[in-house]
């Protein structure tokens, strides 16, 4: 089983930092989880080198408490040294300690790596590692990550999240120095680390500190948005703490230390007769502060309405025999967070209140607006820049919230909706699961990538055909493949449909990831990159075993043996790309013989040339071997202008095949691996199909939305329309499928089967002409779209009659003869025909050549 190693720099058995680790680790299914609480890292909790005692009882059973073995054996590494480094190196800027830091960090890194090797760690989660309480350990951790990740080729196996940073942790006393924090190991670019900040402000400040830092995302703390309710387990909470059942209860969830400003809650309580205050915090952490607050409560006359309830287990955790923060929230009327201005960053108690369906009040601490205020969350806010303590106007606002049940309900409704959208568990889970999905099984050989946009109506049937794959007479082993669905900003129920299907079919691994940039090429690349990276972490695999990335389309059904046949063809041929056979259901075109004849002729031509040249991949169905995918640089995102804005080009599948072929890798055709094309591609774009505008005009290739909004056209084409549709189809087909393969790989013209198709004389003349055009154009590489289209079009015009003779001979006489030339070429004298073909095909201003050739496949 894959092993997750977590390390918390908090040195507390169950803190907010540890809880966030548990929430995230709980999403990373299929991993054995080990957690180092950081006792041997952080000094101010008094646990350095202390053995674990009963801490495991506070954690879920699926977590194993662990720590790096042998750290106590390192000469000079102890609590005193860590405190000295903080005092002299971080705060004092004294660099004389660096040689000792460097030595100890090197030995620590070795101990960390040895522990990971012993356990077989495949993923690491670092919580708060940048906070420089112990920079020696941070430096050691960076070294261990690079050493271990490089040795095992693990990619970005480290999830590094900072809850606290120098500028938001007691900045008034410059505990960690001043910007740019010369004594702090700054986050560094590593091929093994993905960084996470809690909000946009923290990300921006991190990038101000380290401007060239890459791979950093915003990942807010996660909460399940669900009302906290009184139930059988917590019904006695008020009784057990001596709180009357009918009084309003103000809840304060905090450490009892001066920076938290609990005195504000006591002053507010004095202005709210009949209201009680429950303080959830460890009274033994700072006994002097607790005593001071008791004296203040007595002086203000509210001591009998204040309960110092001691430490509660954090939100979303349950410890037998103990009450939790969520139990308190079930009984609370309002949550208070009147903290100091510069102490808190995220303010978890506010999120906990929002998630539990409890109104809250807060001070206007430094980052409140960044995290909550500007997002529109509703609450009374104490302006502590203008008034240090609550006054009568603020108390009246709080009293109204306490006594007005309707207002409380409206505030809860509004805040819950915003909370679900901004830090709900699903929002966070989408990012975590995309970057760190469940480990891929050792037997998985294929990842099927399915880009989707608003396909809720069609998706169940498409997923069914992917699920019901066959291998001979039985089902295809589900451990052999997985499905990666890439949602490209759907606004319908596409994602919900996918999750529901996954829940109903747990035997098939179905991952849902998101791609924010619109465009099928962007989505296809995101899914293939995702699958390729994960495939490298499969356990116990033969280094020579091939892994395949497979493309499918969200509106096309695959045949039952589609994947098995494609896999078999790739394994047998050892090709880089495997291309499927595509077909329409003839029954859909019953009563439309002219339209069906045009479609059928195109498919027949494709079957012949694909068998001969291997064809080029089509997003509807192809496979690429992972290493070949990475050698080619992945799916290329090429941009073009449409209506004055850049959009991603639609020919990513063809362009990718061209890159692979030009790299010297082979393409094979798998005729028994079949995909049924959705007829809506014709039915709902029939006018554009007839006129050759289905994929754009004027040189701009676009895809119109062909999702049915009205009944499909069911009448047949006229003879003239059928002829026009066929001519555009064959004009698109011939340059791409008979010329382009040999243009990219001229050596094919010496292959016996290719020579038999063209005939020896035509094959020889094509080879000479390709060499001449290459020299004339000074083209070294025909891979770029602007490089291959012009010579393909030129060769078509120069050899059209002979090429069509080849098609008639090998496909059928009904293929006929070349469509009429563009009128401008028909008027050119024969002796200057080749010269003007060049001008026509290279006219980059008009796009007429693109329009003539149909701007992309029609059928």
From TrEMBL:
Keyword Thylakoid in record: no
Single GO term (MF): glycosyltransferase activity
Top-rank taxon: Bacteria
Keyword terms, alphabetized: Transferase
Segments forming domain Glycosyl transferase family: 238-372
Annotated Glycosyltransferase 2-like domain residues: 447-613
CDD domains in the cross-refs: GT4_PimA-like
InterPro entries tied to this protein: Glyco_trans_1 (IPR001296), Glyco_trans_2-like (IPR001173), Glycosyltransf_2 (IPR050834), Nucleotide-diphossugar_trans (IPR029044)
Residues annotated as signal peptide: none
Pfam family, one: Glycos_transf_2
Protein name: Glycosyl transferases group 1
Native organism: Amycolatopsis australiensis
């Amino acid at each position: 089983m894959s092993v997750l190693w977590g390390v918390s720099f908090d040195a507390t058995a169950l803190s907010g930092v540890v809880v966030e680790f548990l929430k995230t680790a709980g999403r990373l299914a299929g991993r054995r989880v080990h957690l180092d609480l950081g006792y041997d890292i952080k000094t101010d909790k008094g646990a350095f080198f202390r053995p674990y005692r009963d801490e495991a009882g506070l954690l879920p059973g699926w977590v194993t408490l662990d720590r790096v073995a042998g750290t106590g054996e390192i000469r000079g590494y102890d609590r005193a040294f860590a405190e000295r480094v903080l005092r002299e190196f971080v705060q004092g800027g004294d660099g004389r300690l660096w040689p000792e830091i460097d030595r100890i960090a090197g030995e620590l890194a070795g101990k960390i790596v040895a522990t990971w090797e012993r356990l077989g760690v495949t993923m690491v989660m670092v919580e708060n590692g940048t906070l420089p309480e112990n920079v020696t350990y941070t430096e050691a951790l960076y070294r261990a990550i690079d050493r271990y990740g490089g040795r095992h080729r693990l990619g970005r196996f480290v999830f590094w999240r900072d809850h606290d940073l120098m500028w938001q942790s007691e900045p008034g006393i410059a505990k960690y120095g001043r910007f740019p924090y010369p004594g702090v190991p700054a986050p560094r670019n590593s091929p093994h680390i993905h960084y996470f900040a809690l909000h946009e402000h923290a990300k921006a400040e991190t990038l101000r500190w380290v401007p060239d830092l890459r791979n950093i995302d915003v990942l807010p703390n996660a909460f399940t948005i669900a009302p906290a309710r009184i139930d059988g387990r917590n019904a006695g909470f008020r009784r057990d703490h001596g709180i009357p059942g009918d009084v309003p209860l103000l809840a304060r969830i905090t450490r009892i230390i001066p920076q938290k400003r609990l005195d504000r809650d006591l002053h507010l309580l004095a202005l709210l007769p009949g209201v009680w205050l429950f303080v959830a915090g460890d009274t033994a952490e700072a006994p002097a502060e607790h005593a001071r607050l008791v004296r203040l409560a007595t002086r203000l006359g509210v001591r009998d309405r204040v309960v110092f309830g001691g430490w509660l287990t954090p939100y979303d955790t349950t410890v037998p025999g103990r009450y939790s923060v969520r139990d308190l929230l079930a009984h609370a009327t309002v949550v208070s967070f009147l903290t100091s201005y510069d102490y808190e960053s995220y303010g978890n108690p506010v999120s906990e209140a929002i998630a539990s369906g409890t109104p809250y009040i807060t001070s206007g601490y430094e980052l409140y607006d960044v995290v909550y205020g500007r997002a529109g969350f509703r609450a009374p806010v104490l302006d502590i820049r203008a008034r240090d303590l609550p006054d009568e106007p603020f108390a009246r606002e709080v009293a109204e919230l306490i006594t007005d049940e309707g207002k409380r309900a409206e505030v809860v409704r509004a805040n819950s909706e915003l909370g679900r959208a901004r830090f709900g568990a699903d929002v966070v889970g989408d990012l975590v699961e995309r970057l760190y999905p469940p480990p891929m099984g050792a037997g998985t050989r294929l990842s099927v990538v399915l880009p989707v946009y608003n396909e809720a109506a069609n998706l169940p049937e498409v997923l069914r055909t992917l699920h019901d794959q066959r291998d001979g007479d039985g089902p295809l082993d589900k451990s052999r493949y997985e499905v990666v669905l890439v949602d490209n900003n759907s606004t319908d129920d596409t994602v919900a449909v996918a999750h529901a299907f996954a829940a109903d079919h747990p035997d098939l691994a179905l991952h849902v990831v998101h791609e924010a940039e619109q465009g099928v090429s962007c989505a296809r690349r995101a899914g293939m990159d995702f699958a390729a990276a994960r495939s490298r972490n499969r356990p116990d695999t033969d280094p020579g075993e091939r892994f395949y990335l497979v493309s499918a389309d969200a509106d096309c059904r695959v045949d039952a043996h589609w994947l098995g046949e494609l896999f078999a063809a790739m394994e047998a041929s050892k090709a880089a790309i495997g291309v499927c056979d595509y077909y329409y259901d003839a029954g859909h075109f019953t009563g439309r013989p002219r339209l069906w004849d045009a479609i059928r002729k195109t498919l027949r031509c494709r079957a012949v040339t694909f068998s001969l040249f291997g064809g080029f991949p089509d997003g509807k169905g192809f496979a690429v071997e992972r290493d070949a995918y990475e050698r080619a640089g992945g799916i290329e995102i090429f941009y073009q202008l449409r209506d004055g804005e850049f959009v991603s080009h639609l020919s990513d599948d063809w362009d990718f095949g061209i890159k692979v072929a030009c790299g010297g890798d082979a393409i094979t055709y798998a005729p028994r691996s079949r995909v049924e094309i959705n007829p809506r591609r014709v039915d709902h774009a029939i006018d554009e199909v007839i006129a050759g505008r289905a994929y754009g005009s004027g040189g701009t290739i676009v895809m119109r939305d062909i999702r049915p909004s009205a009944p499909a056209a069911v009448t047949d084409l006229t003879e003239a329309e059928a002829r026009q549709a066929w001519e555009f189809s064959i004009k698109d087909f011939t340059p791409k499928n008979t010329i382009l393969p040999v243009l990219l790989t001229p050596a094919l013209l010496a292959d016996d089967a290719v020579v038999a198709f063209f005939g020896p004389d035509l094959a020889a003349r094509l080879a000479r002409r390709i060499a001449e055009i290459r020299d004339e154009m000074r083209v070294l590489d025909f891979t770029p779209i602007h490089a291959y289209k012009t010579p393909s079009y030129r060769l078509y015009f120069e050899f059209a009659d002979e090429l069509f003779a080849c098609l008639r001979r090998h496909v059928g006489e009904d293929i006929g003869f070349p469509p009429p030339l563009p009128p401008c070429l028909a008027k050119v004298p024969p002796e200057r025909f080749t010269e003007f073909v060049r001008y026509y095909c290279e006219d980059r201003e008009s796009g007429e050549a693109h329009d003539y050739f149909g701007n992309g496949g029609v059928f």
